[in-house]
Each structure stands twice: as C-alpha cells, then as structure tokens.
Amino acid sequence: MAKIVGIGANVFDTLYTVESYPAEDTKMRANSVKECGGGPCATGLVAASKLGADCAFIGNYTNDSAGTFLTQDFLKYGVSTDYMTLKEGYSSFCSVLWLAKDSASRTCVFYKGNVPPTEIDETSAKAIADAEILMVDGNDIDAAIKGTKIARENGTKVLYDAGGLYEGVENLLSYTDILIPSEEFAIGHTKEDTAEKAAIKLMEMYNPEIVVVTQGKKGGIIYDGKEVLHYPAFLVDAVDSNGSGDVFHGAFAFSVTKGYNYYKCCVFSSAASALKCTKIGARESVPTFDETIEFLKERGIDEFEKDLD
Known about the structure:
Elements: E1 4-7, E2 11-18, E3 32-38, H1 40-51, E4 55-61, H2 65-76, E5 79-86, E6 94-100, E7 105-111, H3 122-130, E8 133-136, H4 141-154, E9 157-162, H5 169-173, E10 178-181, H6 183-190, H7 195-206, E11 210-214, E12 220-223, E13 228-231, H8 244-258, H9 262-276, H10 289-298
Helix pairs in contact: 1-8, 3-4, 6-7, 8-9, 9-10
C-alpha cells in the first residue's frame, strides 16, 4: 500500500546547460544535454520515494517515446505505476529547459500534449482512501478534485503544490489540508502585497491545517492560523534549480509521514531541495534521507536524529 499517492503532471524534460540564456535569433553551443522526468506532482513522488516513502502515481500515459521513458523512470525510482492507464496514440506532456550557468536560473518552454484526462476508477479511489497523503499540483484538475473529495471522506491528507494559477483551483483549494503555494501564486491568488499577508488570507479563505509559502532563495513562511514563522533556505553552489520546488513538496509529504511537526517539515524539505540544486536533473539529484540528515548536521541542525515532536 502506498503511503503517498499523486495526481498531476508527469513531464518529459530535455535540459540544455548553457553559459547564459541565448539572445533571440542567435545560435549557441550547449555545454550538455540531458533527458529526464519532470513535473511537480510526479517529481514530488520521486523525491518522497527516494527519501524512503512508498509512493504511487495515478494518471494516464501514452506509448510515445516520452511516455515510455516516463513510465520506466517511475519504476527506476521506486514509484508504483499500478494505477496508471495506457492510452495509445497520443502525445506526452514534454518541455525543453535552458539552464544558465551565469545566473543558476532556468527557462522553460512546454507542450502539454493531448493525453486524455484521468478518470478515477474503483482501484485508484481505494489507493487514495488507503494512503496517508494525496499530492496534487493543479494539473489533471477534474481527477484531482474528485481525488481530494475521496481523500476528505477517508481521512487522507491533501497536499497541494500550488504553483500555477489554473482555472478551477478554488475547488481544489477547498479540499486542501497542507497548502504549499509559491509566493507568486499566493500573492496572485489573494491580491495581497506580501507573502505574509497572502498566507493569512489563504488560511481565512480555505481553512487548511497549514499554509507554507515558498520563497526560493529566501526560504519561506509558515502559518498555522495563529503565528507566522519564517523557515530558512540553505545556500549551496547551485547548478540546476529546475524541480527544486517539486522536491520540496515531495520531501514535505515524506516528512509528514515521518511524524515531523510542520515547521520541521519545512526545514527538512528546504535542505532536500537545496541539495537537489547541486546536481543536474530534477529526479536523479534528489538526495537520500541520510544525505539530507548529514547536510543538516553539518549546519548545526541535529534534532532530526532526536525526538520528532
């Protein structure tokens, strides 16, 4: 039985490492090129799996080269494909990314493909009901909304990786227990002028258990309805920031299953996300649990080996 299941984007990424972002209508030699799996929910599941949780993806896939790669990639990292359904003859969700060395930033162009929307059947509904956490990211939104309703009925916590301002997200937000938006999403959705005010507003609007607003290199804030706290970012020599937010969410889901309180979930997830940025590839660069604990200990944070209260 999977402790963490997910419904959302599973993307075939092609990464080009370049010295700097290319100017329009020019040619540039890339330093390297890499094909790998991506997508917020899917990469979050891989992160949680690599850290030690049993995970499964719920969704459709197709039999083009990208779809075949993505299915094998899940198996490579221990994410169950038991709840995935093959739809033949379609095009997979894919993207091309430029990773600029001079700024450690990434620029993405994506094509969402045309794989039919996921339908939640009896088997996948039971997987959601039996899980501890359902991860969603706003993609495949009809299935996600149905999944969150099943989760609510069965005591499964819903973790929403809120990055895109998609149509219909209000319905998804209403069933969210652990709301983790980017600062851009939080401010854009609430129309507030600071992340702190946006976190408070999101709590007032949707009443989740916790709101965590991610702020990249600044770390982020956490709000439980009573107190706004800041959690740290960890400085590293970053070479690829693509997927760092996805890893944060997956590490957060894993941390919840470990029994950490929500602030410790933030600190652990921030460390895992930072470590991911030191290597290329959203999934293969995810650290193990032991690597993350050692990273924290090197920075004077050793309570993760002690009590989890």
